[in-house]
Amino acid sequence: MDPTARQIWLGMLLITASSVVFSTAGLFTRLIDLDAWTMLFWRGLFAGLFIAGFLFWREGRGAIAALRAIGRDGVLVTVCSALATVCFINALKLTSVADVLVIGATAPFLTAALAWAFIGEREDLVTLLASLVAVLGVVVMVGAALEEGRLLGDLLALGMTGFLSLMMVILRKRRSIDMVPATGLSAFLCALIVLPFAHPVAVDGMNFVLLVLFGSVQFGLGLLLLTLGSRLISATRTALISVLDTPLAPLWVWLAFGEVPAAATLAGGAIVMVAVVGDMLLPRRHLLLTRGAWG
Predict the structure, then answer these.
(1) Tens digit of each residue's pLDDT (9 = 90 or more) over 161-190
(2) Could you say which of 82, 123, 148, 187 would form a disulfide bridge with 236 (CB–CB 3.0 to 4.6 Å)?
């Protein structure tokens, strides 16, 4: 296997692992008996500490220099990641989960458009077709609930998708720069944003242990793997593989609580997985990254 192919496979495996750990969010929220804002505060704080710990372990005294090196685009990654989380939280409150999932599943197409416009990265037909199949799979999963949405909530879900897509494009564009510090800062920023609505001291022993795992594993490790993997594959493929967390989320609830998913959920989830695995395995030409509008 040539070095380019190895790099692509490593990137796909890292993003797949990121999707797996991100998909455990529903499991943690079911286990933790706290209000959403308090959970999100501790989740962001522990995620930031986890990523900061990784950065200092890897860089040592060079961690501060790595933080300074992120530049303007690193600040954009920080803001986009934090705003995506805030939009996601409020979208779930104002519209149906089904709408949020379907709108979020369009991320590969929005990412492809942004990548082409700003960095000249043109995605191949295989990945674009796989993205379409993945969207159809998500529609099958949640189609019965699509009429429950509201406009403001849907707009927030679209904002979430836009911020995530932009973040993936920036991470790909600046892949020569270590953006791990930026994603760590985004986790701290999430905690800061929700702090006025949270009750951080209202946490008992077992909930605190679960919050540590929620923040460090589900959010911190997920962000870290996403950041590392997105440097190695196209932004659109990153967005496509990230859709895997949609069918995986009900799987963990099923295994943990015995809640059998509906037939449509299983069928749609299978379609999404086939789309992602097919994109990974089908041969294609390597993408060429050209200089885009960002210079």
Answers:
(1) 999 999 999 998 888 889 999 999 999 999
(2) 123
